[in-house]
Amino acid sequence: MNFKKIILSLLVISVAITFTSCGGNDSSNSKSATDSTATGSSNTQILSAGSTFVYPLFSKMFSAYNQKTGVQVNYQSIGSGGGIKQLQNKIVDFGASDNPLSDDQLAQSPVPIIHIPDCLGAVNITYNLPDNPSLKFTPDVLADIYLGKLTKWNDPRIQSLNPGVKLPDLQISVIHRSDGSGTTFIFSDYLSKVSPDWQSKVGKGQSLNWPVGLGGKGNEGVSGLIKQTPGALGYVELAYAIQNKMPVASLKNKSGNFVAPSLASTSAAANVEMPADMRVSLTNTDAADGYPICSFSYILLYKDLSYNIKSEEKAKAVVDLVKWIIQDGQQYSEALEYAKLPESVVTKSLDILKGVTYNGKALQ
Fold first, then answer.
1. Burial call 308-337: b when 16+ CB within 10 Å, e when fewer
2. For the chain, which residues make up each domain, given as ranges?
């Protein structure tokens, strides 16, 4: 698809985008949301910031939504940590994060914050080697590379997993994120589950004290560093690797199967019971056919939007947008290598949105 190639070829150098267009209709499931937003809203501008993980999908969604409603969404792809901070500082109308807020973060918020999953994605391991062969990694090997214990591509532990590949005598250049990152949280959450050594020495979080490696800003920056550094290995959201023609590794999951990231293996990892607040970890899945580094990405909203939004009309426009993202907007997911939200997740999210208010007044 030409549009997809044009958008995603710019991802390595772009960190923010404003989406503008006009006109259109919506399906019956979200008709009321679309109609109410489109009426008298040609000048409505919604501000958001956060996850680079979801940026390729949001770029398409927000362009399509503008065409349907006239509402413009200015989304800044600055990383989950930045999105959370801008929401806390009341700079944006909603934030976007690949990891849910912690209990402590929620307790410190003066107004309750809700989590609405907006997509399902995979964090894949990608690399830069001659001819970029298909590779396999086990959890312990991957953890030890990031701990600095394995430093050469032809190390016997890596070579034994890939007997049909002649790996070069080349230093592994470890690449990681330099900014506060939900993608890093997902990746380190996985490593903490599969490696006691990683858990005790590094742990999980959006920002880490990395034992080794070079940092890049955003999924865009990490992708760029890997592509320009021979021998590099790093982690990025799947769409960034595929659209930049970068290889993706298969990982051994909990069931002992080597699984590559894909729509099917991502969906399999999400076959879990969702808690009432939607905060859940999908890494190191029990699913036999599931890829082990998957996650929901989340929209973060104040439960009472009068805390950070100046008018009830704009608050309603934000809720209408979120309802569209999790319903009709899902049609854009698979073409950009994201799995659609399960119907059970959509249903629970719509119920949560019914509780969003403005000065205590229900918005729908």
1. bbeeeebbbbbbbbbbbbbbbbbebbeebb
2. 2-121+295-362, 123-269
